[in-house]
Specification:
9 helices, three-stranded parallel β-sheet, 13 strands, 18% strand, three-stranded antiparallel β-sheet, alpha/beta, 295 residues
Length: 295
């Protein structure tokens, strides 16, 4: 078996909130229990969403909550050359074309992009770039949720890999990064399930083996409305790290009746490493905040 390499990859569009803490915690426990590496990557590929100093706040939040990563922190803004090399490689394979469609134009014709520009031979300059999708896979096996199936029309969309403004797309960047870092396991929220098949398609075109995926329930304010920076979720406070961890344990299935806020963060992390199992985590895509037994 290949060595376990996991990663946590937050976007610096704001500090970590409670939902992202839960995701980081499961990712960290999963890696450490496998005696593996836990890497940290700042996914700042979309520079238009980056908030000043958010990356440093995130680093301090992880450290304050007892989660220490291995190796250097990787920033996507430092990896533009690698993304461009991959685009050039796919271009040589005749798998890329230019697309002038805006999001509004796509939505006006239906829910999914249907290849409008594929045969128009538009110039690459001042247009977005799309990757021809030849995949016929509509499902995959998730380590936590089992067999997962995604809307076929979504899976068969030609993927946007570079925006009109030149910024590389998330799906491309995350695959290139995971290959470079030899990531073997991706533990993340179930809100990203649909992107898995798109990313696996890119892996195949690059002749690389995809990692194994583990999708955990997303903490939601109400059904379909996740805790997120877009929904103005409150940032977790480092001074409340012990309380935050105890509440996070409740989400991931660990009984917290025997825990005390007098314990240290290190004590809590060690306690969880000895007791947590993926089998304790609810096998669903979301958990309502109101249903969590926290104080």
């Amino acid at each position: 078996m290949l060595p376990y390499v996991g990663r946590f990859a937050p976007s610096p569009s704001g500090p970590l909130h409670f939902g992202s803490l839960v995701c980081a915690l499961v990712s960290f426990l999963h890696a450490r229990q496998a005696n593996g590496q836990w890497l940290l990557r700042i996914e700042d590929v979309d520079t238009t969403r980056v908030k000043a100093d958010a990356d440093q706040i995130i680093l301090s939040q992880l450290i304050s909550h007892g989660m220490h990563w291995d190796g250097d922190v990787i920033y996507q803004t430092n990896r533009q050359n690698e993304y461009q090399k991959t685009v050039d490689r796919l271009h040589k394979q005749q798998l890329i074309y230019a697309c002038s469609c805006t999001r509004q134009a796509v939505k006006s014709k239906g829910k999914y992009y249907t290849g409008t520009c594929r045969d128009l031979h538009l110039p690459f300059k001042d247009n977005a770039l799309r990757l021809i999708n030849t995949s016929d896979d509509y499902g995959f096996h998730d380590l936590h949720l089992g067999d997962v199936f995604v809307e076929p029309l979504f899976c068969s969309e030609d993927l946007s890999i570079q925006r009109k403004d030149g910024l590389f797309a998330y799906n491309l960047a995350v695959v290139v990064d995971d290959i470079e870092q030899q990531v073997s396991h991706v533990v993340r929220g179930a809100d990203l399930i649909d992107t898995t098949l798109q990313q696996q398609h890119i892996y195949r075109l690059l002749y690389e083996k995809p990692p194994r995926y583990f999708h955990l329930p997303v903490v939601c304010l109400e059904s379909g409305k996740k805790l997120s920076k877009q929904n103005h979720a409150i940032a977790i406070e480092n001074r409340r790290a012990v309380k935050n961890l105890i509440d996070a344990f409740a989400v991931i299935g660990l009984s917290n009746h025997s825990l005390s806020e007098k314990m240290t963060v290190e004590d809590l992390i060690n306690w969880a490493l000895k007791r947590w199992s993926p089998n304790l985590l609810a096998k669903r895509r979301e958990i309502l905040l109101l249903d969590i037994n926290t104080v």
